[in-house]
Design goal:
Elements lengths: L14 E4 L1 E4 L6 E3 L4 E4 L2 E2 L18 H12 L1 E5 L5 E4 L3 E8 L4 E8 L3 E2 H7 L4 E2 L1 H4 L5
Parallel strand pairs: 4-9
Antiparallel strand pairs: 1-8, 2-3, 2-7, 3-4, 5-11, 6-7, 8-9, 9-10
Length: 140
């Protein structure tokens, strides 16, 4: 799938490739070289200020621990952007869109050749919690 702009979201049900280039926090967004910004489906991690949003699951892991774990699952860090995003290089992954996650983000289940299902790996590691409202019967 080709994206017209970096702000484009993938329609629900669409499968697409994402080569990660940068990460903000433990559940995204993950910027893809191909255009979309991914919010990992079915999980919640702490915000970068250390808080959890109201009515969201709140894991024990710090925001930095969750972000750094996601970077390692994706590939390896290569620096920090002016905006504070962790720059990352890693293999292309396959993602299945769940539709818009608000703003210019696509909610998606993503599988990395390095780490498998990213949402499952984040929950398994304790860096994020399963968010039953959005998990929707997903299997790890």
């Amino acid at each position: 799938m080709l994206f017209a702009s970096a702000a484009a979201t993938a329609p629900a049900g669409e499968t697409f490739t994402c080569t990660p280039t940068r990460v903000w926090d433990g559940d995204g967004p993950i910027w893809c070289a191909e255009g979309p910004r991914i919010r990992l489906s079915g999980i919640a991690a702490r915000e970068m200020d250390g808080t959890c949003r109201p009515n969201h699951p709140c894991p024990r892991a710090s925001a930095e621990e969750a972000r750094d774990a996601l970077v390692q699952l994706l590939g390896r860090p290569t620096g920090v952007s002016r905006e504070g995003h962790i720059l990352v290089t890693g293999p292309a992954m396959t993602c299945r869109s769940q539709g818009s996650a608000g703003g210019s983000r696509t909610a998606a289940w993503c599988t990395s050749p390095k780490s498998g299902d990213l949402s499952c790996a984040m929950v398994r590691g304790g860096w994020a919690l399963r968010w039953d409202r959005y998990w929707r019967g997903h299997r790890c």
